[in-house]
Task: structure prediction
Amino acid sequence: MAINFTSPTRKKNSYLTFVGKAKNKNAKKPLMAIFMTFISLAAIIAVAVNLIISSLILPEELGAYSFTFAPPAVFEILEQNNIQPRLSGMEFNLTSGEVLFNAINNRIDDRSGVNSAIAALQGAVNLRLLQVGQPVIISYVDGISSDTLHSVIIPLRNSNRVTALRQPDGSFKVSETVNLTLTQPTLKQGVVRTSLYQAGLEVGIPANRLAQIFDIFAFSVDFQRDIFAGDELAVIYEELVDTRGNVVGTGNLLAVKLTTRGQPRQAYSFDGDFFDENGESIRRALLLTPVQGGRLTSSFGTRRNPISGFTEHHPALDFAAPMGTPIMSAGDGVVVHRGWDARGYGNYVVVRHNNSYETLYAHMSRFNNLAPVGARVAQGQTIGYIGSTGQSTGPHVHYEIRRNGVRLNPAVAVANMPSGRSLTAGERPVFIEHIHDLAAQLNP
Result:
């Protein structure tokens, strides 16, 4: 038996369907009366069996659900009036100021049923968080003087659904249906007009994947000075698609190609890390930029000191960023100093990376309590926050790299550092085969 879907506003009992004829209390032939009673009972039983064992097909909004019909008491009332029950459905959206109880109760006449369904749903869904526009799907049985709520379905944003379904004893049982998802690679390409980040957003690349791209190329690209209008970005990542073809999330980043001033840089995901097209790790021992989105304001070398006005050597890179922006450790290491320097650094941190390399980060507004002196920190871990303490004209981080106590130009030092993990002779053929199709898409 098909379920009839109605508009949100309906006329009571407009879907009652009569079968047979009304019982004739003045019938003179007992056999005929018995026969008609038998026929009526058979019809009602057939309807009940059909409703119980049939797969009731709802519109796509309901999906594939199995339904159990209304309690026996409903059948008894309908049987007494020779009325065939008809299951109807309705979809609507919550409006401003409308709670779920009122939204359903205003559309069907079954206050106790709605109360029971709401009570059951509260254990599975925070009904207070349902927002204006939230879709709700209900099914119900048209009664003689009132209706009987049959089910309430709340589609969730992740394409799952929570269902409250009436049981034979009149109670409601809640279940969550997880919509199966498939992963499919998707290619997105953009051209820089104002910024790399904006170029990615314009073509639909998710923000979390763009942040990952910044991290991948943080070893080799200054995103403030190396990115120009006309540069290109191509990204392949997984989309999570449900069985109806709706994109419900994003999966792993598979490959990325960043072309700056005609120079391509490629990165491919393989065995938990990223490698270039030749199988060399993208990762370096130290980051070039220890603050995400930082803008280079002063390079390594001779410059006019903005505080004293004298020309002097600047042994670091300065990256400006908003006050409070996290500052990351440029590499794995141990915090060996954290404190105040009244001569110029203000609040600063020193991290030792091995027997010869150290990095220094100055002018912090505050330190990260999870990275005290003696703590081991990982590359990319927050050690402090952008500030303007000490001799500073604005919020920024003063970033030094030292080797055996000698200050190096971070841009040169990072570029000349060996890559991270190297693929073994056995892994390289597997990697080349793995990236074959991805490389063909990035380099058509």
In short: DSSP finds eight helices and 26 strands in the chain. The longest helix spans residues 30-53.
